[in-house]
Amino acid sequence: MFDLNILFSAAGRRVSLLRHFKKTTSAMGIRGNIYAADSGKSAPAGFIADQYLNVPRASSPDYIPELLSICKKYEIKLLFSLIDTDLELLSKHKEDFEIIGTKVLVCNTETNEICFNKQKTWEFFVNNKIDTPHLYSKDEINQLGEKEFPLLVKPWDGSCSLGVHIVHNHKELEFFSQYVKNAIVQEYLEGDEYTCDAYVDFEGKVRCVVPRKRLETRGGEVSKGLTVNDPEIITAVTDVVSKLPNAVGCITVQCFKQESGRISFIEINPRFGGGHPLSLHAGADFPRWIIQEFCGLKCEASQNSWKHDLAMLRYDDEIITEGVNIQ
């Protein structure tokens, strides 16, 4: 019987993930609590946790000191971040948390910089000879012909598909390049889009990859998805993740597979993605594997752990609480 308190920062709407962690620790005979931290008081996941903690935004100078205080007070052993904006910040302070006995399960700063900045993500793909949509330079943009359209305009520091626009001509390109903050212009791809969950063990080895075909999205997050046992995608994703410096835990990789068979990568998020519950239900139990490794048990992570052709159809649910709890 182990004692293990776990904290999730930026818990947001990750109700399914926190429920699964609670279920897993209970099934494994592990004592401890699940804590959720968020800058708002109305994050749904906070009402699923054993305790909900209000913290400053990641941009605040008080953010890290407050998290450190929480981890010390509640004897947090594992800390996860569930949003892009504080991954790099937490990676820079991993040693501060380790001093008080908290393991921050995030990749190192270099990997987080690569993944957060889409310009650097593109450079990582190109430098490692990984297929990726072309990113146009300013000189190339000025010389674009009509045959190059449609194109994609998006912010280099965006997330959840915010600020992403398909442009079909020079007039639209000019408008959205000005309208979108920190805009970059990229080749537009058609084909089946996949979000793939890769489990990287504490030794840096990719142990499992689950490709999830995106059938429908809402607000930048998958609302309908399907697990697909595609060996070509699994091999390609394993190669991509293996080239990241000191990756660990759940790495979410997005790619397109076209009719020609071309697999082209567009994004990497070194954290649990919003659609990860599909992988969990399919049998890829990332939380259990992480806890097994942390507790010094045999990690059961395996490529054969999950079920092919399992669909997830998401819908709205509600949490009811007194208004005083969210004000």
Automatic annotation (TrEMBL):
Transmembrane segments: none annotated. Keywords: ATP-binding, Ligase, Nucleotide-binding. Residues 122-295 form the ATP-grasp domain. The keyword Transcription regulation does not apply. SUPFAM superfamilies: Glutathione synthetase ATP-binding domain-like (SSF56059). The keyword Nucleotide-binding applies. PROSITE patterns: ATP_GRASP. Pfam families: ATP-grasp_3, PylC-like_N. This is ATP-grasp domain-containing protein. The lineage of its organism: Bacteria, Pseudomonadati, Pseudomonadota, Gammaproteobacteria, Oceanospirillales.
